[in-house]
Amino acid sequence: MIPIITIDTLSKTFRSADGDEVRALDGIQLTVEQGEFISFIGPSGCGKSTLLRIIADLIQPTSGTLRVNGKSAEQARKDRDYGFVFQNATLYEWRTIIKNVELPLEIMKHSKDERRARAREMLRLVELDDFEDRYPWQLSGGMQQRVSIARALAFEPGILLMDEPFGALDEMTRERMNNELLRIWTTMKDMTVIFVTHSISEAVYLSSRVVIMSPRPGRISEIIDIDLPRPRGPETRDLDQFFQLTSRVRHSLRQGITLE
Amino acid sequence: MTTVSTSAPEPLVRAERPPRDASGMRTVFTTVLILVALGVVWEAAKLFASSVNYSLVVGGTTIDLKILTDAQLPHLGAIVGAFAEPAQRNGDPLYIMLFQNALYTLWAAIRGFLLGGSIGFVLAVLFAHSRLLQRGVLPFVIASQTVPILAIAPMIVIWMGRAGALEWSVPVISAYLTFFPVTIYTLRGLTSVPQTSLELMQTYAASRWQILWSLRLPNALPQIFTALKISATASVVGAIIGELPSGIQNGLGIAILNFARYYNQSPERLFATIVAAGVLGLLFFGVIVVIERLVVRWRVEETT
User: Fold this and answer.
1) Which residues pair with B86 in a beta bridge?
2) Which residues of A155-188 are buried (b: 16+ CB within 10 A; e: fewer)?
3) Is residue A259 predicted with pLDDT exceeding 90?
4) Terminal CA-CA length for chain B
5) What's the rounded Cα separation, in Å, for the pair A84 and A161?
6) Rounded CA separation A47/A149 (Å)
7) Is residue A68 helix, strand or coil?
8) Which pairs from A237-244 meet CB under 8 Å and 24+ separation?
């Protein structure tokens, strides 16, 4: 097992304008292994998105240490070690679909031919190759989010960070996107995924481990191994084991909240 | 459509944008209708004033309607007719003379537009990247627009004359009016970038220059074009005003000065010149609209 992300006694305190301090994260301890699919789940205010953003070096921790691929988070960001998927697809409206997927490759100064070929390949992967010349507004929410996943994978990062990527989608689309994501993750050898969600069934269905977090201050209250067989599909959701695991996660979440 | 294995039917792709022709025809129709209505009001007012012998008594007070006489407010037919008549004895018809002068003014306006637009754009980029510059310089930029252009124009003519670039005095005066909207709108466009769009660039470790080029600029384009449309008409106004103190002999501004002097003999010539200036401004505006449609192609057609 190769540790990809190691987090040690990490805390984050936000200071509001009137001087009040809010402890968003406290004493976070976590190691993520290569090739894992790990979910952060918890009620709002538990700091799950904050933790993801700290790993991405979009915000800085107040104390504690964090290593990504054995480097500081800042160095890992500069080395483009991870791809990030936001809750809203964050496509650039002036770019066609294929030009959106090419964006990171453009920033990273890949050649024009290579960009085009790579973006085509990615769009084929998310099954949107018929839409490359459309503009984002012409696509549905689910399709837009698939484009943003294609964009995040275009430069072949070893880590994929996803911040409630399917939170804005309806239940049907979300389950379909879950299957898509698992298929893509299986295609990408040894890719590590960190997935933030507030959906219990989504977390259980996708993950190899579910990190349960509780609020005020944001803490990891339990980590549950999900040993459901792979490959997983719609029938996985009907397994007894799936029900047992979702209720375990639900109970654990409830405990975190009744602590108040 | 290719078959999609894992996906159930996805919501249909949204419709293509509606054809422009339909709304375009409606716009033309409305414009013509308003023009006709204004003409009717114009002529009806004149007809009414002449029927009451240019004075109207309402509740004991007499209202003087002499401004509606043919000597003050010509018939529309007279204004249209004036275009075909010689501007000077045995000279070219007025429309040729106006066309030549309009070209002269347009050339100055284009130079002013490009000069002012470039200055406005550079200022906006500098302000967007330096809060210090923005705090320090922006108030002066705003204050510059509270000074009447008519007060500054003669000074610019003198300075440009001293600098040996007198032919640039009109464009510089025009630029004084055009740079401001470009600065303000471009600055707003460059800085009103959605937070996650910016964070996306951070996850790519993009440089400032790359963020400017690939995110801030395209994000600002719709606002930049709004500014350019304002500036296009302002540049024509600026060029016309700039011609007044410039001492040059050509241009619509000079034509306006001349015809104003002979207003009592033939008011229709001044009106014809004003029409020409309006058409010039509209044409410039229209060119920017066409360029905007070519450049800003991603926008959903706005239904108004």
Assistant:
1) B93
2) bebbbbbbbbbbeebeeebbbbbbbbbbbbbeeb
3) no
4) 34
5) 5
6) 23
7) strand
8) A237/A201, A237/A205, A242/A204, A242/A205
Res. A199 pLDDT band, cuts 50 70 90? very high
Cα end-to-end distance, chain A, whole Å = 37
The mean per-residue pLDDT over the stretch B73-83 comes to 88
Beta strands in chain A (DSSP E): 3-15, 21-33, 37-41, 63-68, 82-85, 159-163, 192-197, 209-214, 219-225
Per-residue pLDDT reduced to its tens digit, B278-301: 999 999 999 999 999 999 988 754
Paired sense of beta strands A192-197 and A209-214, if any: unpaired
Pairing label, strands A192-197, A82-85: unpaired
Q: Is the peptide bond before A231 cis (omega within 30 degrees of 0)?
A: yes
The amino acid sitting at B153 is A
- Please answer yes or no on whether B203 and A56 come within 8 Å at the CB atom: yes
Query: Which phi and psi (to 5°) does residue B285 adopt?
Result: -55, -45
Among the listed residues B223, B54, B245, B276, the one whose alpha carbon sits nearest the alpha carbon of residue B158: B245
How many CB atoms are closer than 10 A to CB B144?
12
Look up residue A112 and give its amino acid: K
Distance CA B245, CA B271 (A): 21
Output the six-digit token pair for A86. Answer: 């936001």
Residue in A54, A87, A92 to test binding to B, most B beta-carbons within 10 Å: A92
SS3 sequence, B276-301?
HHHHHHHHHHHHHHHHHHHHCCCCCC
Which residue out of B1, B4, B5, B7 would a mutagenesis test of the A interface target, given it has the greatest number of A Cβ atoms within 10 Å? B7
Percentages (nearest 5) of helix, strand, coil residues in chain B: 70, 5, 25
CA A5/CA B251 separation, integer angstroms: 72
d(CA A162, CA B289): 41
A90–B194 C-beta distance less than 8 A:
yes
Q: Does B27 touch chain A (CB under 8 A)?
A: no
Q: What is the DSSP letter of A236?
A: G
Distance separating alpha carbons of residues A38 and A207, to the nearest angstrom:
5
Q: What is the mean pLDDT of chain B?
A: 87
Residues in A whose CB is inside 8 Å of some CB of B read: 56-58, 77-80, 82-84, 86, 88, 90, 92-95, 103-104, 106-108, 127, 129-131, 134-135, 137-140, 142-143, 172, 176, 179-180, 183
Q: Which of residues 221-250 of B touch A (CB under 8 A)?
A: 221
Token pair of B168 as six digits? 């640039």
DSSP state of B194: -
Closest CA to B175 of B232, B112, B124, B227: B112
Domains of chain B: 96-295 (1.10.3720.10)
Single-letter residue type at B94: L
Chain A residues close to B198, C-beta within 8 Å:
none
